[in-house]
C-alpha cells in the first residue's frame, strides 16, 4: 500500500494565512499504482515545498487553478525507480535515483513550449507528496550523484529556475549578479553564479541571512532594511557601472531599485512578487539605458539536466531544512512563516 497526503478543502477561510488551512490536508492509504507503457513506478523519497503549494492546499483564490478533492499536492520531488512499464527506456535503471520534472511540458527550446496547465500538484493533476507515483519516461532526469534524496528534491523549481535566470546573460568571470533574500531560487543563483566565476552581490533583511549568503558564495552583502535605496550601494560597489543581472523576487515593491542597479544593457529577471506592491514607473530607466526586464516562468527539462551537471561538477549542496513524513503539516507551517533559508523538504 502507498500513503499520500491529499487535499479535501473544508477550511472556509480559503487562505494560507488561516490557522486552520492545514485541516484541508489528509493522510490517506491507497494501493500502489502500476506503471503503464513508457512509464515508471517511483518510490518517492523526498519532496520540497513551493509557495504555490500553500495556496493550493488552502484552496486560495489567489491561485488560478483549484484543487479537485483528493488532489495530491507538490511538484518538486526525488526518488528511485522501482519498476517500469512496457517499452520504458528506463528498464535498465531499476534502483536509479531520479528527479521528477514538475510539468508535463517543455522538454527544450523556447518558453512557448511550456504549458502551465500541465504542472503537477494542481487542479486534477496529481502531485508528488506520496510514497509511490507513476511518471512518464520523458519527465524524469537522473539525479546528481553527490546529493542525498532530500537535497535532490530541493532542486527542480528553485534550482532550474536559477539556471533559467542565469541563461539570460553570459555568466563568467567578471559578470556581476545581484540576488534578493535567501529563499530557494536566490540561494541557487548565488551558488551557481559564484561557481561559474561571477561576482555576486546579495541583499537580504538581516545580518544572519547575509552571513549565510556569504557562505553560499556571495562577495558583497547589503541589508535592504538599513539601506532601502540599495541601488546606490550597488553602484558604489561597481564604480557606478551597475550590474549585468538582477534576480528580482520582490516584484513591484523592488523593481525600481532593481532597474537602477543595472548597467547600460543589463538584464533584470522577474521571478517573484514577495515585497509589498507599489506603483512604479520604470519606462524611462529601461529605455534610456537599453535595459531588459524579463519575466521568468518555469524551465525546460534540458535546464534541469544542465543543472544536474552544474551541481555535480562543482559539488554544490543546497541549504535545506528537513521534516519527517509524519511532520508534513509542520513543514507547511514553517515554510509559510518564511524564516527558513533555502528550501523546506519533507522526507517520504
TrEMBL record:
SMART domains: PKS_ER
Coiled-coil residues: none
Domain of life: Eukaryota
GO molecular function: oxidoreductase activity
Gene3D superfamilies documented for this protein: Medium-chain alcohol dehydrogenases, catalytic domain, NAD(P)-binding Rossmann-like Domain
Classification via InterPro entries: ADH-like_C (IPR013149), ADH-like_N (IPR013154), ER (IPR020843), GroES-like_sf (IPR011032), NAD(P)-bd_dom_sf (IPR036291), Zinc_ADH-like (IPR052711)
Enoyl reductase (ER) domain segment(s): 20-346
Pfam families in UniProt: ADH_N, ADH_zinc_N
Protein name: NAD(P)-binding Rossmann-fold containing protein
Organism field: Glarea lozoyensis (strain ATCC 20868 / MF5171)
